[in-house]
Design the sequence.
């Protein structure tokens, strides 16, 4: 399976060229940067989960030489070199992989009239002892009653851009949140870069309530993009107007596929709040029955939730029912990206506590995860997908297959040597 995976990623994504384009700050490197990139990429593709585990695999003779060459780095060298790597070629590699997914019809068409990119922040490896100059910090209360004390906790955060509405995970980019900085400041830097690298890749941006603010809305409109965000108390004027005007007879009443009874209100021309120009607000009231097991008996309780969404998307483009579904779809970034990668692919593992290393390890992880997902969905036959039903089982098969690997199975092993570092 390792050879088959290597041939696929080379044929479809030109992995050897992407690896050869990586560079770092070393003057006369003994270990090529492309070898370090391939080591970390295959470590993530095989779910080895730590640099020490990777070093243990690299020490086994006759296995990894076909993938990374004869000079194999140690765990300390990997951490040091990744920290020196330039993040721009890694972002270029991630962008190239995503664009090839679209050109080769791996993504397919969007289920909606517009393509949406979701921006959301994630927190990485909080610690009370280990920190760096770019760590965020907060005060927390620990201890039992009567012995409580305040301690400082350090952590890293980053804003991740994820394409919404597709079965495959499509992470576009990531931007670290600096110490003392808000999420929106990092999101604006990320969005500016997305406009350059993925200008025609998406049509609208969506996020939680923090993202509904005038500068971000103006930035989206400047580049011809729409904005969709949850409307909450951080925009009190617009929320108050929406609650007053969207309280009468609903515009639409429907029963969803999951049994929820939903009422929709949809109105344009709201002028209060952060927006300088009129915007649209959609309200939904969702009612459903929740089954709970209490003392050996099943008890049904009635649940009601109200949602408000503010957007610059007109009614003629996307109706209220579809817009509400898109608004709920953004939660998939928590499950398909953050939770899945943190639980199964060691995204929350700190390989090296240095800001550049943290960012570079994340970018390589996103590339590896996309490559494994594409290989699973587009290269494996239906019978093989019954055996390797999950990406985890496929990653384990790629790891086991390295024992049977031959030189002819690795396309870049026969390629000419990569150019020296810039």
Sequence:
């Amino acid at each position: 399976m390792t050879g088959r995976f290597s041939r696929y990623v080379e044929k479809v994504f030109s992995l050897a060229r992407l690896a050869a384009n990586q560079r770092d700050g070393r003057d006369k490197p003994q270990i090529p940067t492309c070898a370090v990139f391939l080591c970390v990429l295959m470590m993530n593709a095989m779910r080895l989960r730590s640099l020490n585990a990777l070093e243990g695999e690299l020490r086994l003779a006759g296995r990894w030489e076909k993938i990374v060459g004869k000079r194999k780095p140690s765990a300390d060298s990997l951490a040091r070199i990744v920290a020196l790597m330039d993040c721009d070629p890694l972002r270029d590699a991630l962008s190239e992989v995503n664009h090839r997914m679209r050109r080769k019809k791996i993504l397919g068409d969007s289920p909606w009239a517009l393509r949406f990119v979701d921006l959301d922040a994630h927190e990485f490896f909080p610690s009370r002892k280990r920190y760096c100059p770019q760590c965020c910090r907060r005060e927390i209360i620990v201890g039992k009653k009567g012995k409580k004390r305040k301690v400082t906790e350090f952590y890293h955060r980053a804003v991740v851009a994820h394409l919404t509405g597709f079965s495959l995970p499509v992470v576009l980019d990531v931007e670290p949140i600096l110490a003392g900085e808000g999420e929106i400041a990092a999101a604006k830097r990320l969005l500016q870069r997305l406009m350059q690298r993925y200008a025609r890749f998406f049509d609208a941006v969506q996020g939680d309530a923090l993202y509904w603010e005038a500068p971000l809305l103006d930035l989206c409109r400047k580049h011809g993009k729409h904005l969709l965000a949850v409307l909450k108390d951080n925009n009190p004027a617009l929320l108050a107007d929406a609650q007053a005007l969207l309280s009468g007879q609903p515009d639409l009443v429907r029963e969803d596929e999951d049994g929820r009874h939903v009422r929709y209100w949809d109105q344009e021309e709201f002028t209060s709040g952060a927006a300088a120009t009129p915007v649209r607000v959609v309200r939904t009231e969702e009612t459903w029955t929740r089954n709970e097991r209490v003392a050996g008996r099943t008890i049904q309780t009635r649940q009601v939730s109200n949602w408000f969404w503010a957007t610059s998307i007109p009614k003629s483009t996307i109706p209220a029912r579809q817009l509400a579904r898109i608004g709920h779809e953004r939660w998939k970034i928590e499950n398909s990206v953050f939770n899945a990668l943190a639980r199964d692919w060691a995204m929350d593992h700190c390989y090296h506590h240095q800001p550049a290393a943290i960012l570079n390890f994340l970018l390589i992880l996103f590339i590896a995860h996309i490559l494994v997902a594409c290989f699973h969905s587009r290269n494996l036959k239906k019978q093989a997908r019954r055996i390797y039903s999950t990406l985890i089982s496929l990653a384990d098969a790629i790891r086991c297959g390295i024992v049977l690997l031959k030189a002819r199975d690795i396309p870049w092993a026969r390629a000419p040597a990569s150019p020296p570092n810039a």
In short: The CA atoms of residues 256 and 325 lie 10 Å apart.
